[in-house]
Amino acid sequence: MKTWVATCPECGSADVVYEAGMMMGQKYRCQKCGYIGSFVLEKEIEVEKEVSGEHHA
Ligand SMILES: [Zn+2]
């Protein structure tokens, strides 16, 4: 399956976390270079693992 990750436009790192913006909308912070902004590069990746949320017996 495919999913996407947010990557930093400054350093290209995928260590980008979402920070709730107030009225400004979405905001992201790069844990690598410290970039903060509403703009991130969305990179599509292929994942084999099933995402959590599946109900296991
Ligand atoms: Zn960065």
Strand-helix topology:
Blueprint (H helix, E strand, L loop, with lengths): L1 E6 L8 E4 L7 E4 L5 E2 L3 E6 L11
Antiparallel strand pairs: 1-5, 2-3, 3-4
Zinc ion binds next to loops.
How much of the sequence is in beta strands?
35-45%
Strand order of the largest sheet: 2-3-4
Q: How many strands in all?
A: 5
How would you sum up the major sheet? 3 strands, antiparallel
Helix content: under 10%
What's the SSE pattern? EEEEE
List segments where confidence is low: pLDDT < 50 over at least 5 consecutive residues. Answer: none
The assigned structural class equals: mainly beta
**What is the average per-residue confidence, as pLDDT, rounded to a whole number?**
85
- Overall outline: globular
Which molecules are bound besides the chains?
zinc ion
Helical segment tally? 0
Gyration radius over CA = 14 Å
Give the termini separation. 22 Å
Number of domains: 1
